[in-house]
Structure formats: C-alpha cells, structure tokens
Specification:
This protein is an alpha+beta fold and 509 residues long. It is built from 18 helices and 9 strands. Strand 1 and strand 2 form a beta hairpin. 42% of the residues are buried.
Length: 509
Amino acid sequence: MLCLIICLVLILFSFYYCIHDCFKPKNYPPGPMWVPLLGCFIKFARLRSKHGFIYLALQELAQTYGPVLGLKLGNQKVVVISSYDLVKKTLLQDEFNNRPDGFFFRVRSFGRRRGVLFTEGAVWSQCRRFTMRHMRTFGIGQSILKEQLTLEAENLIDHLQQMSERGAVKMHTAFDVPVLNSLWFMIAGHRFSYEDQKLQKILVVVHDAFRLMDTLGGVISQMPFLRYVIPELSGYNELMRILENLWSFVDEEIKIHEAELFNYQPRDLIDAFLLEISKNYENEDTTFNRENLLILCLDLFLAGSKTTTDTLATTFLFLSLNPKWLKTLQAELDSVVGRSRAPTEDDLPSLPITEAFLAEVQRYLILAPLGVPHRAAKDVFLNGYLIPKDTTVLFDFHSVHNDKAYWDQPDEFRPQRFLDEQGQFCRSNYSIPFGLGKRRCLGEQLARSSLFLFFTYVVHYFDIEISTEHGKPDLKGYDGFTLSPKPYYLKLARRLERGDDRHVTRAST
C-alpha cells in the first residue's frame, strides 16, 4: 500500500512538473512552443540542421517572432536579441552584464567560477583590472609590443616562404603560432617556435574545442544529465579530454614559473599573479589563488588568440576568391611603403584602403556571430517583454552588421563604405566587432595591431592564388563557439623587392 501511495505521489509530481515546465513566464518574449524537459530544443535542432549554423537557425526564428526572441533549450531559458538598436541598448545596461552559470561554464573551471571570461562581480572585476594593468606593463601600448609583433611578422614571412617552396601552403592554421606568440610573450614571457611539437598538439586541441561546443555550451549544457546516459554521444567525454589537455598545458607553464620566481621581480603576467598569491595566502576568499590563475591563462589563451587567427585565415581565403582586392591592396602598400622595407603600424594612417578593407572584413566576415553569452542579473523588461533573472542572453552581432537600417546593401562586400568623400578612412559607430560596454573585449588593441601587421606583411611580400591541386576553398566555415575556416591551401609566390632582394630586413632579436 505504501509503495502504491509513493508511486502515485511520484506520478502526480511528474505530471505537475511536466505541465509547469511547459508554461512560459508572464510577458516572456515570443518564441516556439515548449514541451516538457526539452523546451523548444527539437525545433531549434531541426533548424540548425537545416541551415548548418546556429545563428542562421536563430535568425529564421527571429523573422517569425521578432527581434526579442524567447526560447527554452533543455533547462536553459534563452533570449536572443537582434538589430543594432536593441543590441546596443542592452549591451550598455548593467542588468545584462552577467555570465551564464551552468554545467558547461563551471566544468571548465573545476566546478567553480574562475577566470575572466565566464565570471562576474568581484572575481571578474578584480581579474579584469589585474589583467589589463599587467598586459599594459608587459607590452600593450609600449614599444616592446611593436618589436614583438614585428618579430612575429618577420618569422611568419620566413615560415610561409619555406612552406611555399615545398608546395601549396596550409593557410587555415598559418597564423596560429604568430598570433599566440604575441599574446603568450606577455602572459608567460616567452614565444614558441613553429616546430614546437608540444605547441602543435595543443593547437589541435584548441581547434577541436571551438568546433565541439557552441555559444550555449552545447547539448551537455542544456541537458547536463546526458553525461550520465550517453557520455560519448553528448560530447561529454570529448569535452573532458579537451579540458584535461588544456589544463595540463597551462599547469606545466605555471609550474615552471613557480620554480623560477625570485626577487619579487615579475617578468610576465604569470609571475605577477604568483606574487599576488604569495601576498594573499592567508585570505581564503581571495581572487588570487592558483586555480584562478590557471583558468585566467586558459581564458586568455583561448579567447585571445582563436578569433584573430581565424579572422586572418578567413580573410586570406576571401582574398583568394576575390583576387582583384589583393592587387588593390598591394598597389596601396607599394605606393606608401615602397618595396624596400616592411609595413609598420606607423603606416596605418596613410593606408585608408587597407584599413577600410579590414573594417569591412570584420563586418562582412563576422566569425563570432553570437559573441559570448550574457545572463540577466535580475528580472528586466525590454521592449515590453520580461526577461527573467538568470536567463541566458545572446546578442546577434551578425544582425547588427547586416542591419539594413544602417548599412546600405549589407550583403555586398564594400570596403568603400568606410571611406569618406576625400578617400580617408572613417570608422562606423554601427560596426562593433569587439562588443560594447563593460564586457567589451579586453584584448581589442592587441587584436587590431596583430590583424593589421600580419595581414599587411603577407599581402606586401606574397602574391597568392588558389591551389588547383586542393580545389576551390569553401568560405563557409565550421559551426561552433566561433565560425572556424575549413582546411584550404594557397600557392604563395614571393613578390620582387627593390633590387630583386627577396630577403626580409629583420629586426634585431
């Protein structure tokens, strides 16, 4: 009898939960119908399969339900915000500056909230201030960073020259090492060689990580119980393999610094953080602990390099498909820089076409269409709709950069939209590739400098064409946390320099 009563109670409770789980909060933004446990995940998954990309699936839903789209994916309430006006408005509101706090966002940091990418409040503000202060100390805004970027650009040209002499060059990963080195020099005080096998292995892991998980953390984030039921199919096993490799890579670097740290003279960001740990060792609530250092380095390693490398790789893929732009850019560089020296950042104001081209690249070839997810810090109304506390909020940056209210013929690649009547570069307020507000990308200055210098060096020193042996590149990349370029190969031919001197004038190392 007791068993029967327990069973009836469980059935009634399950029935109540299923009914309650289908109800949307009052004034919740419009969206597809919810079903128990899954929400509207099935419809979302079907649209993603149809389009091949998450942001396109969400845009089809936004066309039906409006620019403030309300979803429930598994156990996650998700609101997607589109159009320039709404995205700008919400990015600048403190209520939308928190980060999601689910299984995926904690498992990467040992079940806690660590680092700078997916934290908020005191932990985030202290980590961000510390990172910004010491990245300026060890490079950003200083001549040492310009020297480091120049060194990396010169080594990149030498590396591409060596690869081109062997045949077609694998371009989708060509910028991994120089971009990472420019960042790692400030974080860990050293750079990697192109032949470093340990680095090459971890770079493969990084690319796997960005393809495995999407902006929302994948199905394992929406239905974390699946890791117990189908750990392989849900991606949980692969996720843990990736994380263990990344943790190990960063942990080894920290151990080296711990063994060599002395005299209280920090050489890089890791040293500076370790010194803060030693000062706060008696404070149990301090942000400065070893776990937080590891995850901070991981955040900077992943977010600080992946988007720039993929932007460069995709830009040259686009150039190979549109060779007229290559000739235009080379002509401007030749007229301003000449053929006897390499480009420098000081040339940037005199290269309006190049600057406009890169600005249009970041608008047209947007590789992070949904950015990094946010979370509502409290119940907040937007356009008359209630966005409940703890709702995950996604911003459709692709819609921002294709908003017809602000962009004339946004489907066309037109760098001239960033030039004024005198042919000078004119930055647009409607282009926000690095975000807005308190969560604006903290590595923006480094990213802009790296993008300009590595791009102009390659354009200045090489002609490029598609490798017929490997076929025409596909501009549509892999879907994931960002849009990663698919493998492609180009033939690089060294351009003649003044006096037929084919050697890059190298700076002192």
